[in-house]
Amino acid sequence: METKTTRIFGIRAILEAINSNNSIDKVFIQKEISGHLMTELMQSLKKNNIAFSYVPVEKLDRLSKHGNHQGAVAQIAPIDFHDLDTLITKTIDKGEVPLFLLLDQVSDVRNFGAIIRTAECTGVHGIIIQKQGNAPVNAETVKTSAGAAFNIPICKVDHIKDALFILQAAEIQMVAATEKTENILYEADLKLPTAIIMGSEDRGINPSILKMVDVKAKLPLKGTIGSLNVSVACGAFLYEAVRQRL
Fold first, then answer.
1. CA-to-CA separations, 171 to 167, 185, 192, 205, in angstroms, rounded
2. Among residues 46, 133, 156, 229, which one has the fewest Cβ atoms lying within 10 Å of its Cβ?
3. How far apart are CA 148 and CA 201, in angstroms?
4. How far apart (Å, rounded) are the C-alpha atoms in residues 96 and 137?
5. How many of the other CB atoms lie within 10 Å of CB of 58?
6. pLDDT tens, position by position, for the chain (246 residues)?
7. What pLDDT does 227 receive?
């Protein structure tokens, strides 16, 4: 499968894309660059909570294929993102028991793509990610997901806590995948309306998020390695939900 990544470059073009509510996934900014337009762009990125990073000019030259980028290149997401409130309402209105997946800053594109693929295969109603800190939804993500990114709703929130408050209001239990518990996954009741939370590859789920969840659960590990790859662990959690709901 081949998916092209859409990029736009030039400060004015990026500002126009932001004002037109395009799904900008990330903006790359040239290091040590200034000016009135760049200041306006930075203010707009921060106001709209759009992810950005500072990179050498050589990378911008490559991304823009040596076009007149003016120190900024934006990556447009190949999918449209969904509103979480609306998605929850639609799921409940269809008479289905909600199953959502929250990713607390999973940063590796290949892990993200693999998780999307598994989520689609297990009937997850939607994946929730943070605007900042998560792996981008780009062509590589779509390819790794085997196209599943086009088939499953993905929601972006300013912070994972925002999603937790919305899910709590809808009476959807939060189940955190964490080794910081004595509770084994198979003891959790996943037949209930559920949102499973997976943490980042290096630090797991943020402690402030763990304080808000309803259930903490872990997988039994019989070897000497202390943890599984996040996409593998996610698959185990989701298929336990499938098993219980069959």
1. 6, 20, 10, 21
2. 46
3. 22
4. 27
5. 9
6. 344 457 889 999 999 888 877 778 889 999 988 899 999 999 999 998 888 999 999 999 998 888 889 999 998 888 889 999 999 999 999 999 999 999 999 989 999 999 999 999 999 999 999 988 888 888 788 889 998 999 999 999 989 999 999 999 999 999 999 999 999 999 999 999 999 999 998 889 999 999 999 999 999 999 888 788 999 999 999 999 999 999
7. 82
Q: Element (H or E) spanning 23, and its range?
A: none
Classify the C-alpha dihedral 9-11-13-16 as positive or negative. positive
Radius of gyration in angstroms for the set of CA atoms belonging to the chain, rounded to a whole number? 19
Pairing of strands 173-177, 72-76: unpaired
Between CA 150 and CA 146 the distance in angstroms is: 9
Q: Are 225 and 217 in contact (CB under 8 A)?
A: no
Q: Which residues of 140-175 are buried (b: 16+ CB within 10 A; e: fewer)?
A: bbbbbbeebbeebbbbbbebbeebbebbeebebbbb
Chain-centroid distance of CA 22 in Å reads 17
**75 in Cβ contact with 45 (< 8 Å):** no
Terminal alpha carbon distance of the chain: 32
Q: Which domains does the chain have, with CATH numbers?
A: 6-76 (3.30.1330.30), 84-245 (3.40.1280.10)
- In Å, how far are 26, 39, 59, 64, 200 from 72, measured between CA atoms? 11, 12, 10, 9, 28
Please give, one letter per residue, the 3-state secondary structure of 130-144.
Answer: ECCCCCCCCHHHHHH
What are the backbone angles phi and psi of residue 24, rounded to the nearest 5°? Answer: -80, 125
